[in-house]
Structures are given as structure tokens and as C-alpha cells.
Specification:
Layout lengths: L1 H18 L5 H17 L7 H15 L4 H5 L1 H28 L5 H7 L5 H10 L4 H17 L1 H12 L19 H21 L4 H17 L6 H16 L4 H9 L1 H25 L4 H7 L5 H9 L5 H30 L1
């Protein structure tokens, strides 16, 4: 009964978040309402088995976005992509360490809080690896808001200063000829579950998510039938938000209030990282300044690509690099964090 109530609360919260157009609203709305329900009643329950299901579904959603054209376009963007992912990982580890040394956060939580992956992906992986997922999602939300609402303002000034604000290519969401047929959806889910469960059994960090992502990605590249509808993704986000919400305590809420000064460090750190890496790419490639800066922006693939299209960037290149960043971070970041935590401890 308590589990059913938690699910209802999560769905209501997610719907409210979507209605209010909050970034990652399905997840944030669910998390907030389940957290409130848990703080007042102490009866929010979400079985941990749903963590694996949520990770598998999230991996399948990312994998379904990997298409053959992304692979064919790798040659032109491979060098800048490797440079961006490597520099971003290094600078984020530094930012995470600064957060760790200046707060009460443990090292794993601090590193996941500054990880440049998807907010839900990083939070779920952090939850699996026993980091404080409630704090991770707060800092990830701050990153998302700053990337979408703050960073483009500064990037626009740099682009204008360089005098390269002309539009190179207009970004359009690829019009796939795939049909959101029930058959394709079921096939995608089956591939994700089978491969994701193998990943879970392998004991690889975040194996359920990364294996599902790779399996569905390969399935989509060769058969072009990978489909994960947005409503299903939103439902999974609500489950993910509920998982985190059940872990939120009054102690967490009070501690976050004391960490507000670190919000400035995080936002400034991401802005500094974005500009430095973007300028390095600009100097070492044939990308224009807008393409370089937005390729290095630590935001969502679609959000960054759409904003980039308005500021003179070659948005297909931006989209491919952003996708490569997301796949790389989800696949390798958890392993690197475990290694670093063991070394420093």
C-alpha cells in the first residue's frame, strides 16, 4: 500500500514538474513531492529493484538516439571530441575535489555532483555507488540551470567579440523515418532489458545503464529500429525521482541550506571550464568559435544544440560531440570515480 501511494505521489509530482516546465521536470517534480511526503510521513517506499529497471530504461533511451549518421560523422569530430571529453573529465575532477575539500560532502558525492553527464544518469549511478544522491541531484540541477540560463549569455559575448556570429547551419531535429510502432518499442525494451541485465550481473559500475545503452545503440545503428517514446522516458524519470526522494531526510535539507555558497563555486567552475576548453578546441581545430564553445558546454544534447543553432554554431557537429560526451561519461566516469576514491582514501 505504501509503495502504491509513493508511485502515485511520484507521478503527480512529475506531472506538476512538467506542467511548470521545470528543467528535467518529471524527475525533479517527482523527487520533490516524494521527498515532502517522506519528510512528513516517513512512509515513502521504493524497492531497490526499481533502481536497476530505471537504469536499464535510461540506458535504452540514450542508446536509441545513437544513429548510423552519428557514427559516419565521427571522423570529422573525433579529435575535438576526444579533446573535449578528456579536458572536461580532468577539469570536473578538479572542480569535484575543490567541492570535496570545501564542504562536508564525501569525495564520491562531490565528484558525481560535478559530473558533466545527464542529471538523471549521474544521479542514478551515484545512488548505485552509495554516494549521496539527494545532494548530487541538487548540484546537477544547478549545473543544468546554469548551462541553459547563465552560460549562453557569456558565450554570446565571446562569440560577438570574435565576430563569428553568422549562422553556419541551422539545427533541426532529425526527422527519422522510424515509426513509433509498438513492435519497435517492445524490441527496444527487450534488447535493453536483456543486455542491461547482463551488465547488472557483470558487476561493472553502472553496468545495467551502460550495457543497455551500448546494446540498444548497436541495435539502432544496424536495424534503425530503436525507439523509446518520450512519455515512457518521463515515467522512468518519475521512478528515478521517487528513488531519490525516498532517501531525502530533514538532515539533507538543512545541510543543503549550508552549501549555498558552494553553488557559486559550481556555476563559476562550469563557466570557466566551458570557456577554457572551448578556446582550446577553437585554436586546435577548424571549428568556428561558436561551434567550439557550445561543443564544450556541459549541458543536455538537445538543449545545447538548439541554443547553439541561434548563435552561429555548426549544430550537427555540436550534437554529435555532445552525444559522444554523454556516452563516454556514462560509460567510463563511474569506473574513474571508484579508482580516484580508492586512491585518495
Amino acid at each position: 500500500m505504501e509503495f502504491l501511494i509513493t508511485i502515485i505521489v511520484a507521478i503527480v509530482g512529475g506531472k506538476i514538474g512538467l506542467k511548470l516546465k521545470i528543467p528535467a521536470g518529471a524527475m525533479i517534480g517527482s523527487m520533490v513531492l516524494v521527498s515532502i511526503f517522506n519528510l512528513f510521513s516517513g512512509k515513502a517506499i521504493m524497492p531497490q529493484e526499481y533502481k536497476v529497471l530505471t537504469q536499464i530504461a535510461t540506458g535504452a533511451f540514450i542508446g536509441a538516439r545513437i544513429e548510423k549518421k552519428d557514427i559516419l560523422g565521427l571522423r570529422e569530430v573525433l579529435k575535438p571530441a576526444i579533446l573535449i571529453v578528456s579536458c572536461m573529465a580532468l577539469m570536473n575532477f578538479i572542480l569535484g575535489y575543490v567541492l570535496y575539500k570545501n564542504s562536508s560532502l564525501d569525495l564520491a558525492t562531490a565528484l558525481f555532483s560535478t559530473a558533466p553527464g545527464g542529471m538523471m544518469d549521474m544521479t542514478l549511478i551515484a545512488h548505485e555507488l552509495n554516494a549521496d544522491s539527494a545532494k548530487v541531484v541538487m548540484f546537477q540541477l544547478i549545473r543544468l540551470i546554469s548551462v541553459i540560463g547563465v552560460i549562453p549569455i557569456f558565450l554570446k559575448k565571446i562569440i560577438r567579440k570574435k565576430g563569428e556570429a553568422e549562422v553556419v547551419k541551422t539545427y533541426e531535429k532529425s526527422k527519422s523515418d522510424k515509426k513509433n510502432s509498438l513492435e519497435n518499442i517492445i524490441l527496444t525494451i527487450v534488447v535493453g532489458i536483456v543486455i542491461g541485465y547482463i551488465g547488472y550481473l557483470s558487476k561493472v559500475p553502472a553496468g545495467a545503464l551502460s550495457f543497455s545503452m551500448i546494446g540498444v545503440g548497436i541495435f539502432n545503428i544496424f536495424l534503425n529500429r530503436g525507439v523509446m517514446p518520450i512519455p515512457l522516458r518521463q515515467l522512468i524519470q518519475m521512478f528515478g525521482g521517487a528513488l531519490i526522494g525516498t532517501k531525502v531526510s530533514l538532515k539533507d535539507v538543512l545541510e543543503m541550506g549550508q552549501l549555498l555558497h558552494l553553488v557559486v563555486i559550481v556555476i563559476v567552475g562550469f563557466l570557466f571550464m566551458n570557456i577554457i576548453i572551448g578556446l582550446i578546441v577553437y585554436k586546435s581545430s577548424n571549428f568556428n568559435i561558436a561551434t567550439s564553445l557550445f561543443s564544450a558546454a556541459p549541458g543536455g544534447v538537445s538543449d545545447i544544440s538548439i541554443i547553439a543553432s541561434e548563435m552561429g554554431a555548426d549544430t550537427p557537429k555540436v550534437a554529435i560531440i555532445q552525444l559522444m560526451r554523454l556516452v563516454s561519461i556514462v560509460s567510463f566516469y563511474p569506473i574513474l570515480i571508484q579508482i580516484i576514491v580508492k586512491i585518495i582514501k
